[in-house]
Design brief:
Distance between the termini: 29 Å
Largest sheet: 2 strands, antiparallel
Order of helices and strands: EEHEEEEEE
Number of strands: 8
Length: 106
């Protein structure tokens, strides 16, 4: 992966909560080793805006994966409409945590 699109559960739905800055080659290789492709039931769109503040014409294709890996990120606390306003900085994945260990958005 080039970047991480982070998701969190809100009212039982998996929603996009932010996007990371570009991953380093080492981060990309490490993360790719634990990701599993999602099936057709994944709730996210096939593409998203390349930039939150763009006109909507520039889009990037998502490679959807099963939402089972917890990523530790560093984030600016600024939120806009429940989404991190600034790029997340991916730190590492956490195999010691499950989706149930993460508090849902309210």
């Amino acid at each position: 992966p080039d970047a991480v699109v982070a998701g969190l559960y809100r009212d039982g739905d998996l929603v996009i909560a932010g996007r990371s800055v570009p991953l380093t080659p080492a981060q990309s290789r490490s993360l790719a080793a634990v990701l599993t492709p999602a099936g057709t039931e994944h709730p996210w769109p096939d593409s998203i805006l390349a930039n939150r503040f763009s006109s909507g014409r520039d889009r990037v294709t998502l490679t959807k994966v099963q939402p089972t890996i917890i990523a530790e990120v560093a984030a600016d606390p600024a939120l806009q409409a429940g989404v991190w306003r600034h790029g997340l900085r991916y730190q590492r994945y956490r195999l010691d945590l499950t989706v149930d260990d993460v508090a849902p958005l309210t």
